[in-house]
Amino acid sequence: MDRPRCPSESIYNLIPSKMGEPPPPPRYKSVFQENMKDDMKNIKGTMKTMGPAKLDVPSPSNFLRKHSSDKPLPPKKKFNFTASRKPAVPLRTDHPVMGIQSGKNFINTNAADVIVGVAKKPKPMYVDRRTGDKHDLETSGLLPKYIKKKDYGITPEYISKRNEDVKKAQEEYDNYIQENLRKAAMKRLSDEEREAVLQGLKKNWEEVHREFQSLSVFIDSIPKKTRKQKLEEEMRQLEHDISILEKHKIIYIANK
Hints:
Blueprint: H1 33-45, H2 106-116, E1 125-127, E2 134-136, H3 157-183, E3 186-188, H4 191-213, H5 222-247, E4 252-254
Antiparallel strand pairs: 1-2, 3-4
């Protein structure tokens, strides 16, 4: 019986040979590609021009003539002047009335008006530079004009009315809250109870923080990580409760 022959051993077989890259798969090609090409050619052939493919050629005798595009004018109408006319110019032979004289003494009249009339008060001005620049004093804000008013320092009527409306609305809201709390059997924490709860929360936070500070520096195990996360969550919840108690002075709790 013949024994199976083994391949001859060689030192070159110990060196690993490089694996050749497999050939890429054939590119996908649609079976409808040829049909799509024919359809596109047929569609593009009907849309190569804009508008109708055939146009009527204009006649050579129908060329553009002068004033053919001008708009027609409205028909002529007779002009009738209805407005009043100015008086006619006097004739050359017309002479004005002459010889009319007035006996009024304008010099004495003007002097009497000045003497009897009230002197005009100068406009108040102020000078802010040594060169003599003048400015209006009334609009400058230097005159105590507003503090001399009769209603200066008195609360306006509309503000008082608004304050009364706000106060009334606040009272109605407080009554509404009290009624709802009475219906829901809510209890309001007193200042002493609120302070006691706040101090207790702070004390608990200090204890949890002390435990957190006593953790090892290296957190290399799952129980240590779990304990650290638990302490952080407790500290975060306590800080949230403390901030709520410090922010709100009035706190209600539900009766169990």
